[in-house]
Design brief:
The chain contains 5 helices and 5 strands. The protein is α+β, with helices and mostly antiparallel strands. It is elongated, with a radius of gyration of 29 Å.
Length: 180
């Protein structure tokens, strides 16, 4: 019986260490769970998600509106129309027939690649945002010659049916202007 008592007494420090580690792990889990809950219910996290969604949709829409292949002009213009809303959308719909004719006559292929972008304003409640996008646009002519141009575009986005779409798009001013 003496041996059995000695074996139990030898296990007590191991049990004490295991108990302490269990309590520390439980405390850490509770602390992190509290932090996770606070972050999940923080308005700034929801705002950041909307900003990121607006930026991704805006960059894609600007790229779409600067990409068009004369061999697939109808599909390209369909994409333009699904990327836009409001007055910009109406302008594209109204000018589609004339623009299709111009692109088919020119026989060009225009592709755009987003270099960078940023949301400059976001009103999540109103569903409006503004962004700046830098692009590299490549135009290939029928004789296979191509030229590249870097461009900065300013866009306005409107959230419709839970999706961000371009409602305005224009060139951003380049360089400074003299004031006097």
């Amino acid at each position: 019986m003496t041996r059995q008592v000695r074996a139990s007494a030898g296990n007590r420090p191991v049990l004490a260490v295991a108990l302490v580690l269990t309590l520390v792990a439980g405390g850490f889990a509770a602390w992190e769970g509290r932090g996770w809950y606070a972050a999940a219910h923080d308005d700034s996290a929801a705002y950041a998600v909307q900003r990121d969604r607006a930026l991704a949709a805006g960059e894609q829409a600007v790229q779409n509106l600067n990409t068009l292949d004369h061999r697939q002009v109808d599909q390209g213009l369909d994409l333009w129309e699904t990327s836009t809303t409001g007055e910009l959308h109406q302008q594209l719909v109204d000018g589609r027939k004339e623009f299709t004719s111009q692109v088919r006559t020119a026989k060009t292929v225009t592709t755009a690649r987003v270099l960078s972008g940023a949301v400059t304003e976001l009103d999540d409640r109103a569903g409006r945002a503004r962004l700046l996008v830098a692009l590299r646009i490549t135009v290939t002519t029928p004789d296979s010659k191509s030229s590249e141009k870097d461009s900065r575009m300013l866009g306005e986005l409107t959230r419709t049916d839970g999706r961000w779409k371009l409602s305005a798009l224009g060139q951003a001013p380049v360089g400074g202007t003299a004031t006097g």
